[in-house]
Structures are given as structure tokens and as C-alpha cells.
User: What shape does this take?
Amino acid sequence: MLIPRVIPCLDVRAGRIVKGVRFQNLRDAGDPAERAAAYENEGADEIVILDVSATTEERAASIDTVARVREAIGIPLTVGGGVRTIDDASRLLDAGADRVSVNSAGVNRPELLAEIAGRFGVQCCVLAVDASRSDGGGWRVLTRSGSTDSGLGVEDWAARGAALGAGEILLTSWNRDGTGAGYDLDLLRAVAKAAPIPIIASGGASTAAHMRDALDAGASAVLAASIFHDRVTTVADLKRELSSLGVSVRLPIPTGATP
Amino acid sequence: MRPHEAPEIVIVRTGAANLASVCAACRRAGLSPRLSVEPRDVDKAALLVLPGVGAFGPAAENLERFGLWEPLRRRAAEGRAMLAICLGMQLLFEASEESPGVSGLGVLPGRVTRFPDSERVPQLGWNRVVAPFHAPTLRTGDAAFANSFRVTTPPPGAISAITDYAGPFVAALERSGLLACQFHPELSGAFGLLLIRRWAAACLAAPRSAKEAAPC
Assistant: This one.
């Protein structure tokens, strides 16, 4: 059976890892290629890079970052942030991404998902959804790094995205991101029911128990950033804890093992 | 080839694929990757990779368009050094449910079918590959998959490794120098890296065919 994935996320700006709470007050958290390689050695199953660049110059640096990370790791690499056209997607794949993640541009022009899936396959097309709890219950899709309420309901958008060609959903709880309070499990359950594709839980994890709960709620993978960048734990320690909680995890072959 | 030079590996570039990842993995395996769409390279390369992401139909059309159909078919049929990855593996079979009416290379008997809806599709992530003990290069371990389609019947005459996702399917197979993987060895960490190294070393050690063995 498929093994649940543990995914460190690198928010990258101008070639450096940054991390803030709710996408604000960004601070430096290291070199992307160096950290990504360390995470692979510790047992990371995949790496996600989200480009949070604000300017064109910063974005150009991020393409170079993708290439450097690709040379440094031998596990799947998903890259998102600012993907608006099929050419943007193509550039990231050429630089070394295996999958591209689409967020705001997909809301503005949903056909982008079909275009990416049509050219590169559904397994290449990740739909990133930033979800915010509504006062009246349910969740709304936020765009533009959380600054805009799209008016879309999260479950509807997830179902539509999957039908259009998304092969995976990277589901971030805006309310939990950076808080360490655990994933939004109700949100995960709702989206897992709405869309028949794999879901990556994101936003709020600080313990192995949070991750176990997300997997129980229907997530196929769990993503975290600060706990790894801030060395609160390592991927290896986290996987040991997950294992002791009864979650099957992949134990990496030590580097340097002989054939 | 001088001994200090990394052996060359030709990677077929026919369109959509994660070529940067494949090249990076080849470099890590001590090989020197070169991208090509030349039929001559497909025929003559000491080591060849047929990568592939995207859909079965357009990929098959591309092989035809670049004049690679026959050289690839012959090379695979003769079991000369060839690593086919994901869609590249599926193209070796007769047809796929993904693109009805389109023929594959037909080097291996059988049809590619979609995973049932009882599981989340595509299969994304790491799954356990179980290889038979007598497999020359395949081993048991965890590998990275990203696929919606797969082959469920191990083709006769090849050594197959099996994985389970909504039932057993062919995770990889080998026949002489032909190694076909439904998973992505280039994304499977040390497991994939060691597989590429074993396959390349075995292919480079064995003469490609009797008539090409140099009488030095």
C-alpha cells in the first residue's frame, strides 16, 4: 500500500528560504539546496518549493533555486508560486520540478489546470488551495497570498479542480498556518470527500500526532515548514514518532549504501 | 572511451517529461547524460533512457513523428540497454486505456489500464516494490510513483517486480538489457540511484550483441 508522505515545504524568496506566520513578517531560514538535501537524507519523501517572490528579479532567482535544489536531491520536487501560464509551468519543469502547483491563476483562469494536465499529465498538476473558515461555517478560497477572498467555496473548487485535471490538492488552512495548533481536520475531511485525488495537508502542524490525525482525516501526505527549518524536530525523528503512533513510514536507505 | 570519462547515456527528448530530474539522477549515478531525438542515437547509444510523462496517445505520436518508432521497437525487442520510465514503460505494451485506438510499440504483450476508483488516482508517492530474488538488477524496496495507469499482468519472458495499489500491478520488469519501471527511479532516492547504477554497470560490462563484440 501507498506510504503516507512527509513533505518539508520551502517558502523561497530571492533564493533564500523564508518563513512567517500567515505569510507575513518573513524571516530568513536558510539555503534551499542545502536544507532540501539535508531533509532528503533525514527521510523526506518529497520537497515542495513555494516561490513567494514579490518582484520579477526575485522570481528569476527562484528558477535558479529550483535548478540548484534539483541537483541536490533525488526525490520528487513540486514547485509553485506565480504559475500563471503553461510557459511558467514549462520553465519550472525544465529547471527541475517534477510537478507544478497552481493557486491564484487557477481561480482566475481554471482552464490553466486542464492545459497543464493535458500537456504534462494530471500527476504533474497540483492545485494549491488556501482555505479560510467563513463566519457562517464552511471555508472560502483565498487568493493572492491570502489577501483576497475569491468567493469560491473550498469543497466546490476542489471538486472542480480535480475534474479539470488537477492530480493533487495542496490544502493549506489559512487559520492554522504558522500557529502550530494542528491541521484543520474538518477541512481535510470535507475536501477528501469532495475530491477523489490525493490531498496534502498543510498549515498548523507541530507534532507527529497532528500528522497522524491529518492522515486519519483523509490526507495522503503531510506538509510542514517551520518545525523543520527551526530544528524543532528532524524528519527522521518525526518519522520515528509517526511509526510509534502506528503510521507506516518510509525509512530511507542510508546514503553510501552499496548495491 | 577513456577510463576517466563518465559513460554517456542518451535520454530521448520527445516532448513533455521531467528531463532535468532524469539528467540529475544520471549524473549522480556517474553517467554523462545527453538529450537527443536522433534515430541514430536511439540505435547506437550504449545506454538509452526513454522517459515519459503526459499521455499515451501524444507520446506515441511523437515517437512516430521523430522517426524513433522502429529504432526504439527494435532496441527494446532485442533487449539492448534501455531504461524505460513510467509512460516510457507503458509505451512498450500494445495499447492503453488512456488513448483508445492508439498502438504502443508492442514489444511486450498486454494492455495498460487505469487504476479503479476505489483508490485515490493518480497514485502519488512511495510504495513497496517486491522483486524476485533471481532478478539481475531489480531489488525489493520503496520507490516513488506518479501514475494513473498500470499493467496488471506480468508479461511472459520478463522478470517482473510487483507493487500493490488497488491490487497487484507490474512495478518494473527486466529482460536482458531492457529495464522498464512504472515508478520513477530518478525520484526514488538511494533505491533508484542504486538501481540505475546496477543496470548501467551490467549493460556496460556485457557486449551489446554478439556481432558488435569487438575482436580486440
Remarks:
- The mean pLDDT of chain B is 92.
- The first helix of chain B runs from residue 19 to 28.
- The two ends of chain B are 14 Å apart (CA to CA).
